[in-house]
């Protein structure tokens, strides 16, 4: 069997509420909700060779509301000209080109048929033309967008542009939002990696639990889907296909192109950003161990590997540095690529980094423990486990029950996903 007993590659992205640029809109106009600033500069985006089809606005289709009037556009001002529309490789992300007779800064306001409107960030520099990706459109919803600029005489707007409802790909499961807390959810977006029987997918969900962005990666297991550091796209890890092969940490633009990739030998399941611009990841560590009878066992452990901004790797720590496999145990038998009959010993599945102390904390499902490792020396600082280590439960409740991830919340607080099953060993 392949090693895929860990979580279904779901990572929660940062909540990006209140990052847009609000405008003064009074009742009874619909609320303008800031749209996550996941787009290139409105006056500087370049068209891409990967655009899959061109389209034009549906000129005879009226918006659900008189969008320019709702926004407060001045009808006496010359409208913007939208000279062409391109469909990117992401069905919900059209690209448009706008032109103006005078240099200006612009934003996009979009109506997706809800009570509020979506608003993009304001472009950073004035220009007479530019390209923009229209973001935040849910699948299976018709929508309308207007290009808007503030002038001394009020808002100048383009004619409403209609986007036909994009269909949801068959590989994606339907989602139902059962509970929603509107205050913390407002303006928030969640990233996730989804594994189905036939494909691996990157997705973004809005605060209503609707898909607004999806892409098939066409690869094996993926994990840790983030918004990238600049909030200009997504970032994720595609696992190594062999124990000593390369995993890829990739950055994807909102129009669907991979624009940066960093390789980590044997990387799988989890990785973290480092303050110097590099990464650290859990990596496979396969070694042969001989028992007392002379039989050779292929033991699969784990290690922490760093890769710096120049792509240079260094090993920080290995489970073989601290633990010795108990060959009397019945380990899971797994295969990774061409390597078969491997005994899945430690099954590392979570990694977090503490910048204050420059330490790593790693969850080891196979050993039922968390370990804290000094980044500089590779020394183990402590272990947290029900069967070994330096901590004792004060309540009688188990400390670690098959931990499946670990996140540092603050100096003295960890978030651990316990699967509430007996530790495997």
Summarize the structure.
This protein has 425 residues and is mostly beta strands. Helices cover 2% and strands 45% of the residues. The model is unreliable at 1-32 and 36-63 (pLDDT under 50).
Describe this structure in words.
The chain is mostly beta strands. 2% of the residues lie in helices and 45% in strands. It contains two helices and 29 strands. It has helices at residues 67-71, 182-185; strands at residues 31-34, 53-55, 81-87, 94-104, 107-111, 116-119, 127-133, 143-151, 154-157, 161-163, 190-195, 200-205, 211-216, 222-227, 233-238, 246-253, 258-265, 267-273, 279-290, 296-307, 313-318, 332-336, 339-344, 348-354, 359-364, 369-374, 380-385, 403-410, 413-418. The strands form seven sheets. Strands 1, 5, 6, 8, 9 and 10 form a six-stranded mixed beta sheet that branches. Strands 18, 19, 20, 21, 22 and 23 form a six-stranded mixed beta sheet that branches. Strands 2-3-4-7 form a four-stranded antiparallel beta sheet, with no helix packed on it. β5 (107-111) and β6 (116-119) form a beta hairpin. The longest helix has 5 residues, at 67-71. The radius of gyration is 25 Å and the shape is elongated. The protein starts with 30 loop residues before the first strand and ends in a 7-residue tail after the last strand. Residues 1-32 and 36-63 have low confidence and may be disordered.
